[in-house]
Structure formats: structure tokens, C-alpha cells
Amino acid sequence: MVNSIAIPEATGLRAGIKAPVQETLLTPRFYTTNFDAIAQMDLSGQQAELEAILAELRADYNRYHFVRNEEFEQCWNHIDGDTRKAFIDFLERSCTSEFSGFLLFKELSRKLKGRNPVLSEAFSLLARDEARHAGFLNKAMADFGLSLDLGYLTKNRPYTFFPPEWVIYTVYLSEKIGYWRYILVYRHLQQHPEHQIYPLFRYFENWCQDENRHGDFFKVLLRSQPKLWNNWKARFWSRFFLLTVFATHTLTVLERSSFYESIGIDSHEYNQQVIDNTNETAKRAFPSILDTYHPEFFPRLEKCAIASQTLAAISSNQRPTVIQFCQKLPWIAVIVWQLLRLYLLPSINAETSRTAVN
């Protein structure tokens, strides 16, 4: 069940505060969940793993990592035009996504305090990391004369309700795909320093280890609940969320092709590398994964991206709403059909093929 808790639109943003992008299926969302159900989770089946990841989180390896150095202290007006617009969009969406995680984890920690102290502490540590990430990204936006009013977002963005099971699947995937997104950009720019247009990217190597640890924590939650991996429903949902995350990633990356081109990355190749690696990583937690090497997999995802870009163009054509709706229907049908065909491709049984333990 998914419910959106609507919050009234606010007005009167201060000068230099960027108005949030219009919410779509591709923009990061804010979530809430059933806190009582999470408080009552039995984690005994993964006790050793839970203690190990808690020790990692407590160590706080990146305590002193997110400190801006003198390299930031310059004028960035030479990054202009489409590159500047695409980069600000990247920063905004990334900041909103990290802040969304902070809000969810902070509320989980607060609601579980006194009821499940171990989970309360873990979520507090996760919130700490996400707050650092969001703040660092927001300061990067300020270098371009804009920033997000995170307090405004807290009060004025709608919150979507996800059951705890959906939260575990989606957050696990978002953290692991975040790891691969950051590390692949970092490795590319290490090999091609001529494309290092902004110092933020130098922080990605350590940064992505936070994403990895967060994903490991949610893997512990997932594997502690047999109903999330040992039945046909779990196989259904795991493949569903993989496909949802991969489709969203494809649409977002190809929509931002100009940003990736500005740092010397081919968006199509990058998208495939991120998805292939995330899918392989998910094998360590999920009971079933997708066959991303199937010859139809990426061509069908890219057809969805083309349809999505066409829908965006229709939304901005200033025609009456009824006409826009009629124009959109065939392209919505394209996306639904392609996703259905992708979901019905043969999948991989991760329980029998798993050869590594994360």
C-alpha cells in the first residue's frame, strides 16, 4: 500500500534559495512507514552480522572526510550554459535524495528509542551520515549561487507511506546503486583528470563507502526476515524493486546525458555498468535477480527512456491538458509494455547461484 501524505505548498523562498523541482516519478521522494512493525522485528537470526555492521557505523570512518578544502574557494562561473544547469540538477537531486534518507532514519531512530535500542542507535548513525552528505551537497550548490532550504522541504514535500518490507528492499537497493554510481565516477575521473571540473568528485571514494555500509545494514534487516527472501512473494518483490530502481536510474541518467558528457562519461555505458554491478551485488541479499545480460534488457530500458523524454516534452508544449493527456497515452503504454516485457524475462535464482557473502 502506498499513500502520499499531502503537505500544503509554501511560498516566499529567500533570495538564493532554489525552488524545488516539480515532483515527478523521477524526483527523490520523502518516505514514512509503520514504525511499530519495525520496532517488533526479530533480528536474532542475523545477530552476529548486525553487531559487525554496528561496529562499522560506530567507527565513523568519514568523521573528518566532509571538510571543504581551499580548492572550493574560487569562482565557478566558468562552468556555464547547459553544463552548469545539468550539474546543478545533479546536485539538487542528489541532495534531496540524501536528505530524504536522513529524515526517514532520524524518525525511525526517534520512534524506536526505548522500544528497540539497537535499531534506534543504528538508524541514528545512518541519519548522521545522510545529514553530512546532504549538507556537503547543499554547500556545493551554494558555490553556484543557489541552495536548498532543507527546512522548507521537510515541511512542504509530500511523504509517501511504504510498508517496512518495501522500505527494506528499496533502501538496500538505493544505497548499493549509490555506491556504484559514486565509485564509477570516481574511478573514471582518476583515469581522466582532465574532466575533473569540480572538487566534489574527489570525495566520492570514501563517500561511497558510507553507501556500502548502509546497504550492508539493510541487507542484515532483509536476511533477518525469512519472509523477505524464502518464498515466491519475496522473489516477486525483489525482481519488481530491482526493475523499478533500474528503470528509474536509466531514465534519470539518460535525461542528464549532458552532465555526464561534461565529465567525459558516456551515459549509456555508465548506466549499464551501474546496473550490472548493482544487480550482481543484490545477489548477496535478494532471492532472485534480473538477467541484465539478456540481449533485450538494456534496449527495452532505453525505449522507456525515449518515451519518458517524449512525455516530458509533451508536458511542456503549452497545449490544453486534455490534448496533452491524449498525446501522452501511447507513450505511457510504451513504458508499461516495455517494463512488463522486462519483468517477464527469465530471472536468476540468487539463492542457488550465490557464491559470495558480503
How would you describe the overall organization of this protein?
By secondary structure, the chain is mainly alpha-helical. It has a domain at 1-168. It is built from 13 helices and five strands. Strands 1-3-2 form a three-stranded mixed beta sheet. It has a two-stranded antiparallel ribbon with strand order 4-5. The longest helix has 32 residues, at 81-112. The chain is globular and about 55 Å long. It holds the Pfam family Rubrerythrin. It catalyses: Mg-protoporphyrin IX 13-monomethyl ester + 3 NADPH + 3 O2 + 2 H(+) = 3,8-divinyl protochlorophyllide a + 3 NADP(+) + 5 H2O.
Q: Helical percent range? A: 55-70%
Lateral strand order in the biggest sheet: 1-3-2
Order of helices and strands: EEHHHHHEHHHHHEHHEH
Structural class: mainly alpha
Radius of gyration (CA) equals 20 Å
Shape: globular
Q: How far apart are the first and last residues' alpha carbons, in Å?
A: 31 Å
Low-confidence stretches: 1-13
- Kindly state the mean pLDDT as a whole number? 90
Give a quick precis of the structure:
Pfam families: Rubrerythrin. This protein is mainly alpha-helical and 358 residues long. It has helices spanning 35-39, 47-59, 81-112, 117-142, 150-156, 164-191, 204-224, 232-255, 257-262, 267-282, 297-315, 321-343, 350-353; strands spanning 3-5, 30-32, 159-161, 288-289, 348-349.
